[in-house]
Specification:
Blueprint: E1 3-4, E2 13-14, H1 40-44, E3 53-57, E4 61-67, E5 76-81, E6 85-92, E7 111-118, E8 129-133, E9 136-142
Antiparallel strand pairs: 1-2, 3-4, 4-9, 5-6, 6-7, 8-9
């Protein structure tokens, strides 16, 4: 699958995922940007915005797993919106700086992240469950049982 690199708008986007709402817009923030050459999405979020989330489908459910190291469950929100949208968001605060501290390197990112997924019709939106363990958020969205068409044999006369 083709992935658009993060230097295009600060996001990685799976362009072949029909359920993804995180679609790269090359003109986003171009005309009303107050900072030169910085898209609006990059100003509002940081590299932490690229929270890695896996989505797998089993016969029973859609399962999302997000790597959110260092975050507590109180710092993460899982919401269901109209239109079958699952939204996972959160924020990692910047570490407090002391006047006597001398930083040699800052590689851990901070900031807000928001990821949105459009779920298929089979998703039971009122039965979504979320849990967090060891920095991994797991969101489970059960699926409606697939109704198999009733097959009625027809007797052939004649």
């Amino acid at each position: 699958m083709s992935i658009i690199p993060s230097f295009f708008g600060g996001r990685r986007t799976n362009v072949l995922d029909p359920f993804s709402l995180d679609i790269w817009d090359p003109m986003e923030g171009f005309f009303n940007s107050t900072l030169t050459n910085v898209p609006s999405s990059a100003r509002e979020t940081s590299q932490f915005a690229n929270a890695r989330i896996d989505w797998k489908e089993t016969p029973e459910a859609h399962i999302f797993k997000a790597d959110l190291p260092g975050l507590k469950k109180e710092e993460v929100k899982v919401e269901v919106e109209e239109g079958r949208i699952l939204q996972i968001s959160g924020e990692r605060s910047k570490e407090e700086e002391e006047k006597n501290d001398k930083w040699h390197r800052v590689e851990r990112s901070s900031g807000k992240f928001v990821r949105r997924f459009r779920l298929p019709e089979s998703a039971k939106m009122d039965h979504v469950k979320a849990s967090m363990e060891n920095g991994v958020l797991t969101v489970t969205v059960p699926k409606e049982e697939e109704k198999k068409p009733e097959v009625k044999p027809i007797e052939i006369s004649g």
